[in-house]
Amino acid sequence: MTVRYLPSAQGLVTAALAVDIGGTKAESAIVLIDGSLVPGSRARVETGRTATVDTLRPALGWLVQTSLRFLPPGVQLAGAGVGSAGPLNRAARSVSPVNLPNAAGLPVADIIETAVRAEHGEHLPATLALDGTALALAEHWLTPGRPPQSLLGLVVSTGVGGGLVLNGQPVTGSTGNAGQIGQCYVSGYGAVATLEEIASGPASVRYARALGWTGKTGEDLARSAVKGDAAAITAIDRSAQALGNSIASLAAVVDFERVVIAGGFSRVAPDYITRVASRLQYHPFGHVRAISIKAATHPVDSPLIGAAALAFTAAKSAVRHHTVMLD
Question: Which family, according to the similarity comment (predicted)?
Answer without folding.
Answer: Belongs to the ROK (NagC/XylR) family.
